[in-house]
Amino acid sequence: MKDVICRSRLVWMGVLTAALGTVPLWGSDYLVLFFFLFCLYLTVAQMWNLLAGYSGLISLGQQVFLGIGGYSVAVMGNYYGLNVLLSILAGGFFSVLLALFMSLFIFRMKGVYFSIGTWIFAEILMIWFSNWSFVKYGTGLFIKTNPPLSTNETFYIAFVLGVGSVALVYFIMRSRLGLGLMAMRDNEDVSETMGVQVFRYKLYCFLIAAFITGMAAGVFYIFQVFVQPYKAFSIDWTVKLVFIVIIGGIGTIEGPIVGALILVFLSQVLADYFSVSLLILGAIAIAVILLAPKGIMGTLQAKLGFEILSPRRK
User: Fold this and answer.
1) pLDDT band per the 50, 70, 90 thresholds, residue 4
2) What does the alpha-carbon distance between residue 177 and residue 175 come to, in Å, rounded to a whole number?
3) 225-236: per-residue pLDDT in tens?
4) Which of these, 260, 273, 297, lies nearest to 36 by C-alpha position?
5) Closest Cα partner for 116 from 284, 7, 235?
6) Statement: the pTM of the whole predicted model exceeds 0.85
7) Which residue ranges make up each domain of the chain?
């Protein structure tokens, strides 16, 4: 009976995924924009959830990879005329290089010190890029792509990243690496005595999250056509990621899907109240935490056993 229910849920998820992939064929321009943003927020939120929800690595500096990804696309396209897809991959590549450098310092820290360490790196890069003549200081860069991408083409790249991020997290959590990450999250010292190579697993997780986040940032800023350090490296990015994951359900694969949908919807509704939008999102997050501490999907799983993509292996 459980297998039948599980298969029916997977079928419905496949139908919804197919519907999402065909939005440009039947949806309006507004719907294409809405689900484009949904796919990108889903991608970066899944990566933050992989770090915080499954590995216990609570990063407050994921915006560092969003900024690097955006500037990589701008520099590669504007100065070197690199193909747009290669520019997006370059954003992921340079994010990995930065993550390797950061790991030399932040993996010596634990708990809140790790979180602060990642945020400090983002602030340092914000200051550096805003004073770097190569990237036009704090005025930012307009982005030229080679070849130019249509709105639908940009949407499909975001769609592949969104669906791919969900599949990636699902298969990681059902692998040996995923078991090690969850053990490390629950008790790092005990997991190390049981044979988990803590530093290596942390590094793998951090590099994967950096690579996917950097590519998603490249797609986002291609759509924006402009990248500027005070926005690209802003902690507002992390605030949104925390909101998505906490609202949807931290430590669940479905949580970022629900949270990203809610965030994009609320962002559209609150567009006319930009100055107080983060306050309103914060108030909503507090209300959800009080009513459903595990988030929407986490609460459903705890009370009803409702789960579509389970990281547990039979």
Assistant:
1) low
2) 5
3) 999 999 999 998
4) 260
5) 235
6) yes
7) 2-16+28-304
Contact between 161 and 220 under an 8 Å Cβ cutoff? The reply is no
Neighbours of 4 (CB within 10 A): 8
Spacing of C-alpha 21 from chain mean position: 19
The Cα–Cα gap between 307 and 6 comes to 8
What DSSP line would sit under 156-204, residue for residue?
A: HHHHHHHHHHHHHHHHHHTSHHHHHHHHHHH-HHHHHHTT--HHHHHHH
CATH class of 2-16+28-304: mainly alpha
Nearby residues of 249 by Cβ (< 8 Å), 6 or more positions away: 255, 258, 259, 294, 295, 296, 297, 298, 299, 300, 301
Cβ-Cβ contacts under 8 Å for 42 (sequence gap 6 or more)? 162, 165, 166, 256, 257, 260
Q: What is the pLDDT of residues 75-96, one digit of tens each?
A: 999 999 899 999 999 999 999 9
HSE, CB side, 13 Å, CA atoms: give it for residue 13: 16
Give the separation between CA 245 and CA 40, rounded to whole angstroms.
14
The secondary structure of 216-266 as a DSSP string is: HHHHHHHHHSEE-HHHHT-THHHHHHHHHHHHH-TT-SSHHHHHHHHHHHH
